[in-house]
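Give me the fold.
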Amino acid sequence: MKTKYNSGLKLILKYITYVFPEVKEKLEGYKNKLKTFKDNELKKQGLLSISAKSFHCIGGSVYALHPDADFILTIQFICALQTISDYLDNLCDKTQTIDENAFRQLHLSLYDAIDTSSFLGDYYKYYPIKEDNKYLHYLVAQCRSSLLNLHSYEKALPYIKKYVNWYSNLQTYKHLEPDIRENYLKNWGEKYLKDYPKISLWEFSAATGSTLGIFAMYAASHNPHFKDADFLSLDRAYFPWICGLHILLDYYIDYMEDLEEKQLNFTFYYKDIKTCEDRIIFFAKKSLEMCDTLKYPLFHKTVVKGLLAMYLSDSKAFLKYNKKVSTNIIKQGGRNTVFYHRMCKILRHLKLL
């Protein structure tokens, strides 16, 4: 294990200087590829998912600076996997299709992306539009080529498969008809709650919507000396805590927007805004506490504080009643989180975030 590694402000500066341009170049390549295809709804949603959700790839790619990770390979894996995730979210959310079989089949691409032993599937089998010029196969291949020669990937793979399975189930159920999706999510999530007694059903569901656990496992698997116990510790820190914090912040800032658009939002299930604030703070504290159990704890703590700073620098986080809540949450991360938050606001002003 490396005794000296980047964390704190030094990590943030490297992230802005090196990761941002690399991710933007990668996403521009995907957009240019899509632009050569004939016009249809799949091309439209592919372009929309990149232009509207590039923030996800930029955020996730902080793991390219993990002390053990190969910078270029990690950017390639994270950008391709996150782009698949965002593209499929659009196909489930932004079109007229509401079909459980279609959603499940689409998400087989994520399973194939993280496991080179599987054969590429017919992902659009049940989807009404099928011609994507092999765009999804291309993204899957980008992920798979990033998995070759990883020293400890076999140890990480069971956890990554678990996260992909949970994510795929969540995406399938949450995009069903509003009058049935809640029962589907309840029936699915309740069987896992005995393993996570400190969180609610809806907090579990929220945590399954994060890809950060996958990225953390991938980055760590570059290290040939990572043991089974190290991956177990990583799993316990990221799920439900860091993954849960990630998505609760995401839902928190989208609360009013989702309410107006009748979108599912797991923060709706808190009885009031104070409870929402308390639970997000609880997840933040647990996340930082669990970082102390990991190799490179300061790296992971910087990621957690960066999550608070990035999400709460969104202008929606300071609208109306959110202002006091967001300020209280930021303070829980400590003085450096307040500083990172100011940096993120500047980056947003410069259109870099």
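Residues 68 and 164 are 23 Å apart (CA to CA).
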